[in-house]
Amino acid sequence: MPPTDSPAPAPAPPIGRRERKKAATRKAISDAAMSLFLERGYDDVGIREIADAADVSTTTLFKHFPVKEALVFDEEADQEALLLAAVRERPPGQSIPAALRDHALRRRMRFVEDDADFAAFSRLVDNTPALRDYVQALWLRHTDALAQVIAEESGLPAHDPACKALAHFALEAPRAARGQEDPRQAVIRAFELLESGWGAVAPSG
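-> structure tokens emitted (205 positions)
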């Protein structure tokens, strides 16, 4: 039996001055870029303008954001972990497609009716082909890891093509919302198709 007076975990070491400065510079660049993009449109804003607005050199900008599209999608590094956790930690009885649907609505679609900032961000992405393609490429890079977890959770072989197909199409499904009057319902409808197909392959998943 473990002792009841075991010491509390040691606190995380404080972030150093150098790391804080890098994080602040990155945020300043990202904020400047988004402000300009929302004001004038992604295609009409140049890298040098963003660097000037953030008071950094273009060399510094590219150290933080290697491509222009990355300025828009400055996401945290644990997106894949959250995606995989949505499958592994789904409620008892919930299917894998349903868990991925809920994750897509919660994390990718982020339907918040009164969130004007997110609505403006969504319009920027929807109206810019380069951004639409870039964000989809970001998500599709998780296909193999998601397929592996789907296989583990469903009991199917690790290289079963059904697992990779579900992973791929689940990551693609939010595209169904584009141009739809009711984006949320469009995503739900796309996942209904995945649910139906998956049930024929792994009814217990």
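The chain has ten helices and no strands.
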